[in-house]
């Protein structure tokens, strides 16, 4: 029979003071509550309480994966570098990829993700369309050599991740698998007690054409996102900006003197117009060495990720390069620029007919400029970072802004890896075809941190029942006599009903016990004191609401079991 845990035996060394390096609430509280300990920058040990919660998160993931037919397995964490060279990512992944050599001088990598490993696994095993579709996954430690590991489990170098890979015969099959995984990921967030939005995302180093991230909303989140009441949501790296401008002053093309500092804010203030009525210019050198002038709504910024997709690895022009191409810093515009300059404008401006742009002469701008009449736009591209108040690209209503923590992401890879690595199967028409792939990742340890980030107060963590290390803590105010006997009885009755219980049997002052109980954040606290015991009652505290209720000792186990079971999801 299971027994309850005694606090005197629990390895959970709490801290009285906030650690100096902890910036986020989740980092601070997981350290203070004795749940994690730092080994080195970005490397953490998970102590027993955190590990119990991580195992619960993994159980939720496994149940949802099994429900859609995904199969769990495990591949090595250290894999041959040659398969990364084969896929093309050996040279492009960046310094986050930890490369090493074995004693024979062969290249290996410590896996940050395992697309190559799984493709290499199946390419000699899945040979016919009759064997498809297949989705296989693992839950494993990953390593990315982050330049600036920070925020505890949010951006560590080693982390626990669930990664899945699907292999289908057709695009339609891949899209169905993708939707199944996306639905399962939404359920994982819900069951772990996370308030999360699925947002359109950039595919980054993983690749593919379609990707969605699940963002746990949190003020301390690293990611910026925009969302709309119509259910559109996207991170700012992928959000398409709807109409985000005002028409500039005037309809006829006219040079105007602007003796003000060369910034959009100063220009708008000088002319008494909004920044949205101005046009902002960015001058860059594209990867193919083409000079490019990017034109945006005046109150928006060039999105670096979008620009890299459009122009490759680009560089911002120096003032010397600007001068070479007829551009003047602070007063740049498409009129008067060197003919070698490629003019690219944000697609949100395509219907605008009156532009206020720089005249490429210090102290001067041009108002009433019209594309197609006064200058040529070589290409319209999505380049601007979306922001609050922009028009939703789906329904046209103003977008809201929020911050979020990326806890999971799903990708449609298509044939990116299967073609590069020669992974094919024999289709029903007798032809060799590359697999249509998807990949799907959940940050297990990051999910733990996100739960704490969303569920805490000034006293400590507030665990949702579904992922709490223990569901009930019993706090006897005396570790002997009738008080202890009542606490032991309640604990045993709860355990008999399948409830996870920890009893604070330490010889500490009540205030110490209460502070630690709130810090560790178990969902329900049962306080046993002499006065209540005499009346046949104990006090039950709901950690989330702070509500307290006196409950008969004979009834408390049934009372709490009903509450806990109802919240286990």
What does this structure look like?
The chain is of the alpha+beta class and 569 residues long. It is built from 15 helices and 32 strands. It folds into 3 domains: 52-217 and 408-453, BirA Bifunctional Protein, domain 2, CATH 3.30.930.10; 254-381, YbaK protein (Alpha-Beta Complex), CATH 3.90.960.10; 470-566, Rossmann fold, CATH 3.40.50.800. Strands 4, 8, 9, 10, 11, 12, 13, 22 and 25 form a 9-stranded mixed β-sheet that branches. The two termini are 24 Å apart. The relative contact order is 0.14.
What key attributes describe this structure?
about 575 residues, alpha+beta, BirA Bifunctional Protein, domain 2, Rossmann fold, 3 domains, 32 strands, about 30% strand
Give the proportion of residues in helices: 25-40%
Continuous helix count: 15
CATH class designation of the largest domain = Alpha Beta
Number of domains: 3
Instruction: Write the CATH architecture name of the largest domain.
Output: 2-Layer Sandwich
Query: Low-confidence spans: pLDDT under 50, at least 5 residues?
Result: none
Shape designation: globular
Straight-line N-to-C gap? 24 Å
Strand content: 25-35%
Mean pLDDT level: 93
Return the CATH topology of the largest domain: BirA Bifunctional Protein, domain 2
Question: In CATH, what is the homologous superfamily of the largest domain?
Answer: Bira Bifunctional Protein, Domain 2
Major β-sheet profile: 9 strands, mixed
Total number of beta strands: 32
Radius of gyration: 29 Å
Structural class: alpha+beta
């Amino acid at each position: 029979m299971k027994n309850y845990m005694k606090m005197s035996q629990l390895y959970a060394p709490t801290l009285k003071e906030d650690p100096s390096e902890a910036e986020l609430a989740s980092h601070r509280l997981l350290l203070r509550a004795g749940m994690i300990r730092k080994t080195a920058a970005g490397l953490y040990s998970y102590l027993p309480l955190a590990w119990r919660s991580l195992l619960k998160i993994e159980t939720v993931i496994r149940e949802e994966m099994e429900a859609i037919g995904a199969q769990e397995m495990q591949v090595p964490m250290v894999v041959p570098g040659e398969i990364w060279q084969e896929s093309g990512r050996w040279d492009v992944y960046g310094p986050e990829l930890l490369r090493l050599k074995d004693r024979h001088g062969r290249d290996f990598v410590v896996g940050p993700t395992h697309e190559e490993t799984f493709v290499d696994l199946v390419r000699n095993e899945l040979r016919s369309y009759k064997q498809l579709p297949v989705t296989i996954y693992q839950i494993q430690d990953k390593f990315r050599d982050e330049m600036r590991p920070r925020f505890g489990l949010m951006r560590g170098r080693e982390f626990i991740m669930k990664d899945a890979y699907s292999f289908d015969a057709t695009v339609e099959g891949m899209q169905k698998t993708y939707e199944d995984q996306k639905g399962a990921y939404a359920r994982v967030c819900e069951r772990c007690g996370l308030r999360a939005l699925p947002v359109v995302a950039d595919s980054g180093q993983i690749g593919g054409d379609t990707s969605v991230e699940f963002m746990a909303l949190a003020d301390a989140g690293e990611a910026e996102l925009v969302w709309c009441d119509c259910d559109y949501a996207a991170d700012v790296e992928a959000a398409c900006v709807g109409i985000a401008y005002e028409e500039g002053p005037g309809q006829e093309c006219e040079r105007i003197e602007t003796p003000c500092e060369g910034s959009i804010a100063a220009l708008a203030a000088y002319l008494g117009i909004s920044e949205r009525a101005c046009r902002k210019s960015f001058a860059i050198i594209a990867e193919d060495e083409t000079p490019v002038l990017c034109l945006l709504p005046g109150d928006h910024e060039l999105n670096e990720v979008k620009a890299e997709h459009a122009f490759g690895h680009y560089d911002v022009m120096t003032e010397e390069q600007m001068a070479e191409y007829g551009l003047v810093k602070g007063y740049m515009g498409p009129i008067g620029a060197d003919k070698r300059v490629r003019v690219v404008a944000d697609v949100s401006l395509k219907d605008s007919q009156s532009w206020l742009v720089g005249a490429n002469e210090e102290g001067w701008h041009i108002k009433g400029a019209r594309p197609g009449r006064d200058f040529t736009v070589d290409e319209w591209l999505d380049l601007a970072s979306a922001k609050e108040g922009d028009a939703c690209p789906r329904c046209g209503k103003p977008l809201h802004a929020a911050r979020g923590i990326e806890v999971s992401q799903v990708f449609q890879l298509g044939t990116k890896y299967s073609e590069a690595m020669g992974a094919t199967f024999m289709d029903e028409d007798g032809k060799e075809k590359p697999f249509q792939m998807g990949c799907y990742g959940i940050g297990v340890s990051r999910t733990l941190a996100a739960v704490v980030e969303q569920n805490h107060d000034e006293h400590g963590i507030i665990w949702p029942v579904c992922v709490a290390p223990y569901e009930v803590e019993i706090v006897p105010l005396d570790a002997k006599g009738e008080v202890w006997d009542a606490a032991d009885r309640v604990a045993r009755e709860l355990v008999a009903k399948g409830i996870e219980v920890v009893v604070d049997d330490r010889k500490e002052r009540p205030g110490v016990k209460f502070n630690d109980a709130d810090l560790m954040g178990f969902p329900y606290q049962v306080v046993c004191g002499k006065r209540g015991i005499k009346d046949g009652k104990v006090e039950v505290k709901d950690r989330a609401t702070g509500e307290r209720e006196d409950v008969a000792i004979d009834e408390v186990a049934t009372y709490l079991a009903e509450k806990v079971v109802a919240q286990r999801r």
